[in-house]
Amino acid sequence: MMKNRFYRMSVFAVTLSVLASATGCSWFESGDEPKDEFYRPINKTGQKHGSAAGKADFNANSNHPSDYKEGTGLGNTYDGFGTVIKDVTFQPVYFKFDQSNILTTEYAKLDEVAKFLHSRKDAGVVIEGNCDNRGSEEYNRALGERRAISAQEYLQASGIEASRMKTISYGKEKPVAAGDTEDAYRQNRRDDFIPVKLLK
């Protein structure tokens, strides 16, 4: 009797698990939890079900970043986009707290990126948007996205084709400075620029 009851309970638990997996439900996130305005759920493949303010959807062929890392840099290659050029480095572009607009003090850094790309038609750049550790993961993921897009738009205005740029938002996952000080926050609010030799 006890064995039969245990067997039925096990089958029920497995069935629930399979159903949850198939429908994309999460055990740790309910649909009625409060979300900030930049929250966007993702599916198992990392593609968006929705988007941030403006309700614009970005497809897999877009040059905009996904919520989760499209490029990892593993093997010095970003998802078939390009191979890292190791002997070229660019300065990070920094942002004010909770801002994504490019400061005039940072223009010269972006101009250096544009100058390099104009001189190397076989090259592209990966723009990585980053944030400090304050705020939710969802909010910072969206903020990092806006920061990366701001740099991309600046470079496009400088004559660089969108196809030569790839944007990624890391949110608060890749700090360069540890701690909860204003100096650490300042260093972590940034875009990083990774030069690559294009694979296509």
Notable traits:
single chain; 200 residues; alpha+beta; 60s Ribosomal Protein L30, Chain: A; 4 helices
Can you characterise this structure?
Strands 1, 2, 3, 4 and 5 form a five-stranded mixed β-sheet that branches. The protein has four helices and five strands, in the order H-E-E-H-E-H-E-H-E. The relative contact order is 0.18. It has 200 residues and is α+β, with helices and mostly antiparallel strands. The N and C termini lie far apart (65 Å). It has helices spanning 2-23, 107-119, 137-157, 182-188; strands at residues 82-84, 93-94, 123-130, 165-171, 190-198. The protein has a single domain, classed as 60s Ribosomal Protein L30, Chain: A (2-Layer Sandwich), CATH 3.30.1330.60. The protein is 32% helix and 14% strand. Helix 3 links the parallel strand 3 (123-130) and strand 4 (165-171).
Structural class: alpha+beta
Under CATH at level 1, the class stands as Alpha Beta
* Major sheet: 5 strands, mixed
- Terminal CA distance reads 65 Å
Integer tally of domains? 1
Instruction: Give the helices and strands as they follow along the chain.
Output: HEEHEHEHE
Helix percent reads: 25-40%
Radius of gyration: 21 Å
Estimate the global geometry from the Cα principal axes.
Answer: globular
Number of helices: 4
User: Average pLDDT across residues?
Assistant: 74
List the helices and strands and how they pair.
Elements: H1 2-23, E1 82-84, E2 93-94, H2 107-119, E3 123-130, H3 137-157, E4 165-171, H4 182-188, E5 190-198
Parallel strand pairs: 3-4
Antiparallel strand pairs: 1-5, 2-5, 3-5
